Amino acid sequence: MEFWPCSNQELVSLTPINQPERIYTAFGIDSPIAGLDDAWLCQCTGHLSHISDHVAFLAWGSDSHEVDWVVLYSAPLPGATVGLPAQVAIMSRGRPGPDDATVKEIKDALCAAGDVELTKLVGNMRPLLQEDPQGGRPTCEYNVVQNVDSLTRF
After folding, report:
1. CA torsion sign, 68 to 110 to 5 to 53?
2. Is 83 inside any structural domain?
3. Is residue 21 part of a domain?
């Protein structure tokens, strides 16, 4: 069994299917779940610390420019009364993310799985808004890490 020696800080952007003009954010810490391959527990921080989800890796690879990417699916824990809505996300450590052709291929493959809910989630995907475009990396200031702006949204 291979162990992941670290946790991952994550800022997610959520857009409800019935409100495509709305963007919500949540910051959390992802930790590997012992005994499960490619599954992580996402624990929100600050004011959303009572919310946790499970996360599964659906696919991973790199685009034609060798930019690595991963597709994650997350949903509330089974039986949970509180959790972030189910979502699917394409994530990358590269600032621009994978190229447009790769993103289209990923979305097409996810929709080809034939799952109605997954297809809705894929159709609702939007790029994550990034701050500090000149600095080369998104920034997460105190209010983001503490989920202060998310209090009235969940």
Report:
1. positive
2. yes
3. yes
Q: Using DSSP, state whether 89 is helix, strand or coil.
A: strand
Query: Exposed e or buried b for every residue in 65-101, given b needs 16+ CB within 10 A?
Result: eebebbbbbbbbeeeeeebbbebbbbbbeeeebbeee
Q: What is the tens place of the pLDDT at every residue in 81-104?
A: 666 678 888 888 676 788 999 999
Q: How many CA atoms lie within 13 A of 108 on its CB side?
A: 6
For residue range 14-42, what is the model confidence (pLDDT) as tens digits? 666 677 777 767 777 777 777 776 666 77
Instruction: Tell me if 1 is assigned to some domain.
Output: no
Residue 3, domain member (yes or no): no
Q: Is the pTM higher than 0.70?
A: no
- Helix (H), strand (E), coil (C) string for 53-85: EEEEEEEEEECCCCCEEEEEEEEECCCCCCCCC
